[in-house]
Automatic annotation (TrEMBL):
Family indicated by similarity: Belongs to the UreD family.
This protein's name: Urease accessory protein UreD
One Pfam family in the UniProt entry: UreD
Record key words, sorted: Chaperone, Cytoplasm, Nickel insertion
Predominant location: cytoplasm
Quaternary context: UreD, UreF and UreG form a complex that acts as a GTP-hydrolysis-dependent molecular chaperone, activating the urease apoprotein by helping to assemble the nickel containing metallocenter of UreC. The UreE protein probably delivers the nickel.
InterPro entries: UreD
UniProt GO molecular function: nickel cation binding
UniProt subcellular location: Cytoplasm
Length: 263
């Protein structure tokens, strides 16, 4: 049997910045704190897992709430690893109040040979809240020649605005084959905001289409939504593409530049 870990965070504006108003973490999640890398008042909150990865049978639950007007960037410490064993699961839920802003920018997941991993992420937005979220996966421990040697890999992302679905996306992969078309990393990013994002889509489509060692593009499938798909040859290219999305989205949304990139 694996561990049953829970992480619960609540964030609220206070004194010109957003603070962690409530926090709880149970193993394998580590302690959580808010760091302020610049004077924007937007904290970086890093999710840690001192155990070094996700073990077979683990069930991880993440619940994050941003009250109206709160703004935060949530990161992970490094690429996560799913170790061999029975299916492990992670369920993450985010709730954004009116006028809230969230960046959820986890590092990619590396599924080891004979691992089984299932991930579900749900975000519920208020009418005028703003979201930038991404997710990414490798084909396995590619440097060791482990490509698609996992038993199962499942991911589902659902994003709602005022209760109506804006994004329902994901995949389910079994061992073997070459579903990434020879690339080693798969990424997806979404920007949602109560404004026209067509200029952002055009900018990203142009920038990503010129990026070497990547096959990537952006599209606008609904008003106020920019969706990006990325296939990358290596991790450096993957994060170059993801950070390009983040930089462009922040600029378009008139947010201050990020204090640092995610690598």
């Amino acid at each position: 049997m694996g561990q049953r870990g829970a992480l619960r965070l609540s964030l609220e504006p206070r004194g010109g910045r957003t603070v962690l108003a409530g926090r709880y973490s149970g193993a394998p999640f580590g302690a959580v704190r808010a760091n302020y890398p610049d004077d924007s008042g937007i904290p970086e909150v890093q999710i840690t897992n001192p155990s070094g990865g996700i073990l077979g049978g683990d069930l991880l639950e993440i619940d994050v709430a941003l009250v109206p007007g709160a703004a935060a960037t949530i990161l992970t410490q490094a690429a996560n690893k799913a170790y061999r064993g029975v299916e492990a699961r992670q369920n993450a839920a985010f709730r954004l109040g009116e006028g809230a802003f969230l960046e959820y920018l986890p590092h990619h997941l590396i599924p080891f040979a004979r691992s089984a991993y299932r991930q579900e992420t749900e975000v519920r937005l208020a009418g005028d809240s703003t979201l930038l979220i991404w997710d990414a996966f490798s084909a396995g421990r590619v440097a060791r020649g482990e490509r698609f040697a996992f038993d199962g890999l499942y991911s589902r992302t659902r994003i709602f605005r005022d209760g109506s679905p804006e994004v329902v996306d994901g995949f389910e992969l079994l061992t073997g084959g070459e579903p990434f078309g020879g690339y080693s990393y798969l990424g997806a990013a979404y920007a949602l905001a109560p404004r026209d994002l067509d200029p952002l889509v055009e900018e990203l489509h142009e920038a990503l289409s010129r990026m070497p060692r990547a096959l990537a593009s952006a599209s606008a499938s609904a008003p106020g939504l920019c969706a990006v798909r990325i296939l990358a040859r290596d991790a450096t290219t993957l994060y170059r593409a993801l950070n390009t999305c983040r930089t462009a989205a922040r600029d378009h949304l008139r947010l201050p530049p990020a204090a640092r990139g995610v690598w």
